[in-house]
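for ur thesis appendix - RAG-1. copy paste whatever u need, i formatted it the way the template wanted (i think)
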Amino acid sequence: QIFQPLHTLRSAEKELLPGFHQYEWQPALKNVSSSWDVGIIDGLSGWTSSVDDVPADTIARRFRYDVALVSALKDLEEDIMDGLRERGLDDSACTSGFTAVVKESCDGMGDVGEKHGSGPPVPEKAVRFSFTIMSINIRFDDEEDAVTIFQEQKPNSELSCRPLCLMFVDESDHETLTAILGPVVAERKAMLESRLILSIGGMQRSFRFFFRGTGYDEKMVREMEGLEASGSTYVCTLCDSTRAEAAENMVLHSITRSHSENLERYEIWRTNPFSESADELRDRVKGVSAKPFMETQPTL
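the 3d part is after this line
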């Protein structure tokens, strides 16, 4: 055991560190490195800036999304095994069909300025992006209904909420937020099309993930979907009603602000294909004023 080459000892050592768990994705994640022993990375890594982008003048640190999810699942390992036992399921038969629902949250943390000190000049506001594993289900091939084997008892507690990314940025700074959270969104998108293979209870099991953006407040939703700020005439983040329309009709609204629709409207706003005046154009795009970068699924 002792006289082994250094790299073998190093990797053995790594496996004993908290947060280092071996896993794989099938198929492999697009545009994401396959190494799994990734620690804290620069929040701007993964952002490919285009010619006219000003480099984001900020400090951000984050975990890679898939590494953080694996770590969260490993923390729940005992709960998952207990859940299988409580439902009377034979754990050796349950190797695939697991799904995990993840709640994403993002919010400004207010003023974090140094009262004195001579650190680097950064915005004196901070934003934290985090997630919570809300539930884990298992569905068998021959059955319609999924069986819930884990449900987060305190979904709004600080204890179940895991920070993914911390950044010095004002939450209204759309460009910098896009630069930092853009790569996070790309990783999330890649994970939706793949399955995670991870050892839980000594056996390889496969997981799929569903992401729900229910932890954003209205200001953040507007920021991420490229909508005008809260003082806008277009009062709703889900539909196109103006204040006047909303006051007259409190009941009948349909969800018309989807991510793809907001993207189309931004393109119209940017190109102004009908050569309209500013007011006409604004009325046409219903208050979309920037390019939306993060899909926030409307779950009421």
